Amino acid sequence: MISTLSLANGLTLLFAALCLWTMAAQSRGGVTTLGRVALPGGFALMATLMLLAGVFEASILFDILWVVAFAVGSAIGRVRGWTLTVQSNKEAGLVSLPATVDGLVVAIILAALSVIDFTSAMLGDALIEPGYVAAASALCAGFLGYRVLVIALRVVRSTPNKVSRAV
């Protein structure tokens, strides 16, 4: 069962579009603030939660699929966050990221899933089962969310001062 077209479908599309827009700017690389680095992950999480809320015929299969997809996306995002070369200027609060396409590809997938959800609601017939759309979006949100979480942890963690002792 699919819901009729509503404000929730429009908001899902809006959050996915904002995720894509902010990730497109970030994928070019360069210097930015940590808050701007976190925006795509936040928008992706909002779009995913909206898509999850649209699953009316929930079953244990879809719940497990959603959680596993989020966990897999989180693991991949965590690894990707650690492999990126990140430089930070703590005094100015700036982060330098390399140009990458991984986040942009994931944001495009999330936007496509939101378009599928919007189109399904507009037609009144599911193009793809909403549980699968929500699970795929959970993979995307897990990737983008944990990618930025690891980047933030790398930026804010302090380097230990080495103290030499005279014996």
Give structural attributes.
167 residues; mainly alpha; three-stranded antiparallel sheet; 5 helices; elongated; disordered C terminus
Explain how this protein is built.
This protein is mainly alpha-helical and 167 residues long. It has one domain (7-156). 68% of the residues lie in helices and 7% in strands. It contains five helices and three strands; from the N terminus they run αβααββαα. The chain has a three-stranded antiparallel sheet. α2 (34-53) packs antiparallel against α5 (130-156). The longest helix has 27 residues, at 130-156. It starts with 6 loop residues before the first helix and ends in an 11-residue tail after the last helix.
